[in-house]
Specification:
Blueprint: H1 2-15, H2 18-23, H3 31-39, E1 48-54, H4 60-69, E2 77-83, H5 90-103, E3 107-113, H6 122-125, E4 138-143, H7 155-159, H8 170-180, E5 182-193, H9 203-212, E6 214-221, E7 237-243, E8 251-257, E9 267-272, H10 273-276, E10 277-278, E11 283-284, H11 290-299, E12 311-315, E13 327-328, E14 336-339, E15 344-345, E16 348-349, E17 359-360, E18 369-370, E19 374-378, E20 391-394, E21 404-407, E22 411-416, H12 423-433, H13 436-445, H14 453-458, H15 464-477, H16 482-493
Parallel strand pairs: 1-2, 1-4, 2-3, 4-5, 6-8, 14-21
Antiparallel strand pairs: 5-7, 6-7, 8-9, 10-11, 12-22, 13-17, 14-17, 15-16, 18-21, 19-20, 19-22
Helix pairs in contact: 1-4, 3-4, 8-9, 11-13, 12-15, 15-16
Length: about 500
């Protein structure tokens, strides 16, 4: 049955301009992914089941669920509710659901709602006067919500202020409402970007999502561009199964495949829940093997962070394209160095390197920082690079002619909150951030191309005296290699 639905969907994709589909954040689910998601549910032992699919698109996920439920003898009736307000895809959704209704051996009740899924329920969600105090709840919720940023003043954002921060993305607004729409102990399976698993931007969402529900299963895709058929999507995407309950499970099942076609080659890992969901920020750590589990265990033995020991990672101060008038190619009177990620080479900061705009002339205090010791860290690195964390030691004594310097905003830097960092402390931080274990930890934590200072400031680190000891060891050895950093760090974390 599902093959025909997918065939019609592919035809729609070919005929509908991508620009039109992008307006609604539409990326259609493959047949293999749809069947896999449908297969993750524990089906309630009852004769009638209710299903919600918000942002239903062409109905692939709903149809995959009907296909599965059709094979369960005890189920007699399936009540389906779909939300879809894109008038272009609506006729196809209607056609597909009627086709499944005709082909199924079960009684299928279908309701398609064309109202805005979020704004139509904002009174209910926020428990406001005029809302439904007993809103409809569902046994199962399945979804591939729209992926698109909206403004902080958009109706969907203002409808759910408790979970939104800044300019939110529609996918986590849908996920929040989906959890709200679930019955107690009901299950939700969504395919969404992994970006919500860390960072301050998604903190409110994580607090709601992980308090109202508990993660039971996460599926990871090794490839960023082979999750959605016929789409050029580089977003790192996951499938997450959540149960609406306050009871924390012992474990989370984490599976992974390379693409959306090879679910028969899944790797499976069962991980303690408090290792996957951890820390006061409620970060979700996406481990794929026992080695990565070991990485988490090693670093989580430390309970301090950079701010706890008087340090902090910050983002570079100067946005060069917004300050073209202060940029200089050559040194002149009053000019100070402007450091870029290209200045980080072989573990140290090299300057000058005959790059354009290496200097700035400015009196803006917000664009200058004291010429202190720092650890510079590249802010943008990709999953495909050998290392996500790429850093270099900056020592003020090598540039005694300057009292001030500047940093371009495509690098981060670690600084002392109250005092200038000693040389051995900077070198000790280099040991941490140039080690394999810290790089692996960050890969587990972050799936974007940005090395986020908020996330770095939340990572566990040893006591400051231990970091200084590490620094003295690498300074003595004069070996800045990753291998040497690993050897030094291994002596402290086992």
């Amino acid at each position: 049955m599902l093959e025909q639905i997918v065939e019609k969907t592919n035809q729609y994709i070919e005929e509908m301009p991508k620009k039109e589909r992008k307006k609604y954040g539409q990326f259609f689910t493959s047949i293999e992914t749809a069947r896999y998601m449908a297969g993750l549910f524990v089906i309630p032992e009852q004769t009638t089941v209710t299903l919600l699919d918000a942002g239903a698109g062409s109905g692939i996920l709903t149809c995959a669920m009907i296909e599965r439920l059709d094979k369960i003898e005890d189920i007699k009736e399936i009540i389906v509710t779909c939300y879809e307000n894109d008038e272009n895809v609506f006729p196809l959704l209607q056609e597909n659901l009627l086709y499944m209704q005709e082909c199924s051996s079960k009684k299928i009740d279908i309701k398609i709602i064309t109202e805005n899924y979020i704004t139509s329920q904002y009174l209910d969600f926020n428990h406001m006067l005029g809302g439904n105090w007993n809103p409809e709840k569902y046994d199962m919720v399945i979804g591939n919500p729209p992926y698109m940023k909206i403004s902080k003043d958009a109706p969907e954002a203002t409808a759910m202020p408790s979970i939104c921060y800044g300019a939110p993305n529609m996918y986590f607004i849908f996920a929040s409402m989906g959890l709200f729409n679930l019955k107690d102990d009901g299950e939700m399976v969504y395919i969404i970007p992994r970006s919500w698993t860390s960072g301050a931007y998604f903190k409110r969402f994580r607090e709601y999502f992980l308090s109202e529900g508990k993660i039971l299963h996460i599926h990871l895709f090794g490839s960023r561009n082979k999750v959605f058929d016929k789409e050029n999507v580089l977003q790192e995407t996951i499938i997450v199964k959540v149960k609406k309950t306050k009871v924390q499970p012992d474990n989370v099942t984490i599976t992974s495949t390379h693409t959306n076609k090879d679910f028969d080659q899944c790797t499976t890992l069962v991980v303690p829940y408090n290792l996957v969901v951890s820390g006061k920020e409620l970060y979700v750590y996406l481990v794929t093997n026992e080695e990565e589990v070991s990485v988490l265990k090693k670093l989580h033995q430390w309970d301090k962070t950079l701010p706890d020991i008087g340090l902090k990672m910050k983002t570079g101060l100067t946005v060069d394209f917004r300050n073209r008038d202060i940029l200089r190619d050559d040194v002149e009177e009053g000019a100070i160095p402007l450091f870029y990620s290209q200045h980080i080479k072989d573990g140290v900061v090299q300057f000058p390197i005959k790059k354009e705009h290496e200097y700035v002339v400015t009196e803006q205090k917000g664009l200058m920082q004291d010429n202190h010791n720092y650890l510079f860290v590249k802010r943008f690195t990709a999953k495909e690079e050998p290392r996500r964390l790429q850093c270099g030691v900056y020592l003020s004594k090598k540039f005694p002619q300057y009292s001030k310097i500047s940093t371009q905003n495509k690098i981060n830097f670690i600084d002392g909150l109250l005092t200038n960092m000693s040389e051995c402390l900077v070198y000790g931080l280099y040991v941490l951030f140039n080690s394999t274990i810290y790089d692996e930890y960050y890969r587990i934590l972050n799936g974007s191309t940005q090395v986020n200072s908020t996330e770095i400031n939340a990572m566990p680190v040893p006591d400051i005296n231990i970091i200084q000891e590490m620094g003295r060891k690498i300074m003595k050895s004069k070996d800045m290699s990753e291998k040497n950093c690993n050897m030094i760090l291994e002596g402290y974390c086992g």
